[in-house]
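[Automated response] Your request has been received and processed.

Submitted sequence:
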Amino acid sequence: MKNKQLYIAYGSNINLEQMAYRCPHSKVVGTSEIKDYELEFRGVATIVPNKGARVPVLIWELDERDLPTLNKYEGYPSFYRQEKMTFEMDGKTYEGMAYLMNRGTISPPSQQYYNTILQGYRENGLDEKYLQTALENSQQLEYYVNDEFDEDFDEDYDLDDDMQMKF
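Generated structure:
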């Protein structure tokens, strides 16, 4: 594995069926975790620094023929960036590449996207509690934001509610 590109997947790319379609020349080499990061949903998955946290990951040996397609699916470099990260597997330390989101706000994933990741967690024997926690965190924040800006919100109390802009 020393001369091979190792890809660290934590979101929908842990789903074996999806990756067979996206990266047909690449193969799974094992599972691991990224320490001091946590899974976060911004509509789609990313990982963010959080001391003491962990994210279960699936490690792929990425064939160079698959990299352009994977970059396209990940929206690299505008939506996601590539970062080198270290992980342990079979008692050894390795370096791999992960895609991390450039920006975005916490928001829940679609049910279909979540199910794609959940299937990957189950296929690869990963602990689903990390996925469930990320989902709950995104839903709580969405509820909080929506509760703060309810239908009684008036951006300018000095204006009459009947006033409408005319062009």
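Summary generated for your ticket: Residues 149-167 have pLDDT under 50 and may be disordered. The first helix runs from residue 16 to 22.
If you did not submit this request, please reply to this message.
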